[in-house]
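>> received
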Amino acid sequence: MKSFSINDEQLAKLACALTGDELARNFNQYTDFMAQAEWGLDTAIGEGGANLNPDQIAACAERFCSFFDKPADSISVSAMDTFGAWSAQLRKLIEEDLRTFRFHPATQAGMAETRHAADEVWQDARVIASLMHGRRRVITMVATHSLFGFVTSVLAPNLQQLPVIDGRALSPDLLVETLAFGDILVATPTLWRYLAQTLPSFPNNVMGLSFGEPLMLDLSAELREMGLGAMRELYGSTETGIIGWRDTPSEPFVLFDHWMSDADKLIRTRPDGRVRELSAMDHLMWEGERSFNLGGRRDGAVQIGAVNVFPQKVSEIISEHPDIAGCNVRVAQRSGALDRLIAHIELNDGITPDQEMAWSVDAWCRQKLRPPERPRIYVFG
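>> returned
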């Protein structure tokens, strides 16, 4: 769609974010957000930059093309390329024809990606842009490869002609110096918790935008006490799109205008007037026709650092360790702190639960599980 406006710098940042995610999902190689934030237009794909090997280069280029639903061979790539070179090639293609986006859910590798019609993503961007009206700049703490990151940190700011600053590379002190009156700060609740613990205060009239996991009332209150002017929370998922919003966790979410409820279903009115039914990823507890609170997840997932984690699946992976007879993983929720996973492990007969065994289990989890999926405490019994 020609109405989309994405410049080369934004496309390069998107390519960097997709590369980081692809390396984590399929190569078990994790690049911290601060390093990813420093990648950009002039960063080399190969030696001296992202340092990708040939297999990784091919996979990451394919992922970049796939994001815009383009064939894997849509761009020519080599180890001598920069992210800017990839972006310049792809920009020409999406300016000619852009009908579909493909997003991966924030969960285990291998989960099916979700296709979204470009006009629906644009529809989501318009409603988020309306929440940004009157703001000065957007400072984002999230990567742009997810549906929510792409809409809040690229498309919606473009509609409001707001400059965007990647705040992931900023230290807490530098972030405080950068924030100014009228800014929007975009982050997940896990990152908001980190900011509440590391920043002394917020300048006047800074608005927060949160999504990815529930924002707890105690955290919202703490941020307001630190001077945050307003906090708007979005609800939705990679599978459904962005559904609703609220100004405080003490209030219910409100559907955006292009959504309506019908019993346990949600109905979306597309930009062309057609409608389609979807099911929310959570049980919704309705307070009238357009307001709702969240119940539990329908699929058994929990959210750790804005990533969907399935404790049952994590239990099964840990149980595959040759010295483990069984494992049960649960979520520990602590007031004023981040949620964490605790693994209760039953060892095979004759195996001693000593430090060496603990190191073996930890090494197994580091090899088999992504960081949000790894338990923080092991209990042997």
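>> The radius of gyration is 21 Å.
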